[in-house]
Amino acid sequence: MDIRQLQYFVEAARLNSFSKAAKSLYITQPTVSKMIRQIEEELGADLFYREGKSIRLTDAGEILLAKAQNIVVSFQSLSSELDSLRKLKQGHIRIGLPPMVGSNFFPSVIGRFHRKYPDVTIRLYEDGAKKVENDVDTGFLDIGVVVLPVDEARFHVFSFVRERLELLVPAGHRLADRSSVPLAELKDEEFVLFREDFALHDRVITECVKSGFQPMVVYESSQWDLIARMVAAGLGIALLPQTICRDMDRSRISIVTLTEPEIPWQLGMIWRRDRYLSFAAREWISFARDLLKER
């Protein structure tokens, strides 16, 4: 059993699919299947239940995954350290971004970084902030952008934006002409939220409960623009960050200041305290910190 076989196994387990793992690793599906079959033959145990096109871990697979993840992360750290010594400013960075963050804050940063360091490649992964935080924690990502706070005993953090959530209601709504609305006044409204893997999902529900009511959630989405369109169509109300609200079509949506309480939205870049970062990743953090000074 070699490190490449373990990398293929971990990726297949992460994605629950041989074909998705092959696509992620830029190899063919038969290669992934062959490598995993070789591990199974060596161990004398099946690692996956194969159910049509879907797969799931067996008990033996769960045991191997717990060990293999640590081995793969350790190997990646070793490779990164050697790569920094060998190639200096060349390298590869894996960065996680929530979808509504990437388009608003990072295109210009990435473009300027690439012009300065053309031999450094950046691979972006778009997921909700909770998934990004978990993937930085496990070592799948080098760096992530998340909604703060996070556990600063585990992560280095620098904050680069601090805003608040604002209320979106459809044009003609009973609250559309108000200058401000306390959160408690929304108890009878229907909410359109981000999905559960987004930090704002839990943040909004928590604040509503603190204000004395459980919000009625009628739709959930991973896309802020779809949430805005749902509000415009009269399907519910939403709470979104000020940055996102600046781009709204005000002819169909009214944006109202939310009060009592204000719900903060603070973004930060995180990376693990106890894990080696390549030169390229450290340079990205320094570069981004200079350009994304907290607003």
TrEMBL record:
Belongs to the LysR transcriptional regulatory family. NCBIfam families: trans_act_CidR. It comes from the Bacteria. This is LysR family transcriptional regulator. Pfam families: HTH_1, LysR_substrate. GO terms for molecular function: DNA binding; DNA-binding transcription factor activity. Keywords: DNA-binding, Transcription, Transcription regulation. One of its GO terms (cellular component) is cytosol. Residues 1-58 form the HTH lysR-type domain. CDD domains: PBP2_CidR.
